[in-house]
Amino acid sequence: MDAELSQSRVRGTARAPPSKSYTHRAILAAGYSDDATVYDPLVSADTKATMRAVGAFGGNVTRDDTRLEVDGFGGRPGVAADVIDCANSGTTMRLVTACAALADGITVLTGDSSLRSRPQGPLLDAVSDLGGRAESTRDNGQAPLVLKGPISGGDVSIPGDVSSQYISALLMAGAVTEKGIDIDLETELKSAPYVEITLEVLRAFGVDAEATEDGFSVAGGQTYDPEGGEYHVPGDFSSISYLLAAGAVAADEDHEVVVEGAYPSAQGDAAIVDILERMGAAIDWDRENGQITVEKSNLSGVTVDVGDTPDLLPTIATLGAIADGETRIENCEHVRYKETDRVSAMADELTEMGAVVDEEQDVLTVKGGETSLSGATVDGYHDHRIVMALSVAGLVANGTTRIRGSEHVDVSFPNFFDVFTELGADVRLREE
């Protein structure tokens, strides 16, 4: 499906979708428990993959409009009766890889073509070092993956600059091993707030894990048991970033965009509020009531390090194309290993729309002062974040912007275009 957007003004109130990162972790944590209820989850293509994995390990997930009832596998995943298809969800594959290493038998994990191109080698090496069998069927560190356990815990070293999800996976699984797991980081940790999210969810489920001088540690023999048997998922700041960006660049004169459900949490992507402030946006965050208000503003380019906030790169790149001056996005090489190479994808598609962009391996520079955006047909790369970021650009570009593959917003923000339309955006969805 393609989305066509024409220059528009937006106004009104929108609610942030629940956090995908928290939802993934909460579903699997509930799976590790005997049973738990997850309230306000994000039900999307990615989180459905995690639900299926919990079912494959012997649990069961039942959902209604506001919650998931999870009958867990009590810390002891069974051997899956079939291959576990993680679809396009890298979070699912990595969290489930460590979970599969607890099962007393062989588990095979696969996914779509994009997921089968993403790096899993360091996590496989870690599982092997812990005594499990962990192999890539093509011997290239990519899915399909073969896992065999059970591991009992121990000490492991792992790089921190490829994916923080490796650490999250080991911490979640380590809590139910006999010995626990001590993780020594071989390199600086990128995307550190995502590990903080994992630690926050673990605490909510009654599991103790902590940062150490050299990495992280989780004691074994623990039980997943949330207080009252329930967990509530907070709003998602990665998704909030597109709504705030839309307000900052395209709000109606004398009106504003208000985003609800924006409560403080460990999410690194809450940095979008500070980034917009630095760019000159008129923005206010009522943390107590979870509301962020933003008005159309004259933005200026800034320098942003996305080492801890990789998912914000598409949003920042779009803002940079609209702002005056130069926006320099640094420390971004790890953003190339997402659903697609998001650095190149944003460089190519913003250039197609008329932006002046310089791409280096670890830096993306957008020269807003030399840019005038015009509508064009652009590729969404089967990547929800690319589609949503380009949609923001489409609000201000002259003419019509057509984004191919717009259905992929279903991964994290299934009703994104409905919300955009309700705010006043001129959006038309068309079959390819």
TrEMBL record:
Gene Ontology terms for molecular function = 3-phosphoshikimate 1-carboxyvinyltransferase activity
Q: Where found?
A: Cytoplasm
Give, as in the UniProt entry, the pathway in which the protein acts.
Metabolic intermediate biosynthesis; chorismate biosynthesis; chorismate from D-erythrose 4-phosphate and phosphoenolpyruvate: step 6/7
GO cellular component terms, alphabetically, are:
cytoplasm
The reply to whether Chloroplast figures as a keyword in the UniProt entry is no
E.C. number: 2.5.1.19
Stretches assigned to the Enolpyruvate transferase domain: 7-419
- SUPFAM superfamilies named in the record: EPT/RTPC-like
* Chain sites annotated for binding 3-phosphoshikimate: K20, S21, R25, S163, S164, Q165, S191, D311, K338
Q: Which reaction does it catalyse?
A: 3-phosphoshikimate + phosphoenolpyruvate = 5-O-(1-carboxyvinyl)-3-phosphoshikimate + phosphate
Q: Does the keyword Ion transport apply?
A: no
Q: Which UniProt keywords apply?
A: Amino-acid biosynthesis, Aromatic amino acid biosynthesis, Cytoplasm, Transferase
Query: Mind listing the GO biological process terms from this record?
Result: amino acid biosynthetic process; aromatic amino acid family biosynthetic process; chorismate biosynthetic process
The residues that the entry says bind phosphoenolpyruvate are K20, G90, R118, Q165, R342, R385
Catalytic residues at D311 (proton acceptor)
Biological role stated in the UniProt entry: Catalyzes the transfer of the enolpyruvyl moiety of phosphoenolpyruvate (PEP) to the 5-hydroxyl of shikimate-3-phosphate (S3P) to produce enolpyruvyl shikimate-3-phosphate and inorganic phosphate.
NCBIfam families associated with the record? aroA (TIGR01356)
Q: Which PANTHER family match?
A: AROM/DEHYDROQUINATE SYNTHASE (PTHR21090), PENTAFUNCTIONAL AROM POLYPEPTIDE (PTHR21090:SF5)
**Family indicated by similarity:** Belongs to the EPSP synthase family.
HAMAP family in the record: EPSP_synth
Q: How does this chain assemble?
A: Monomer.
Q: Name the chain's protein.
A: 3-phosphoshikimate 1-carboxyvinyltransferase
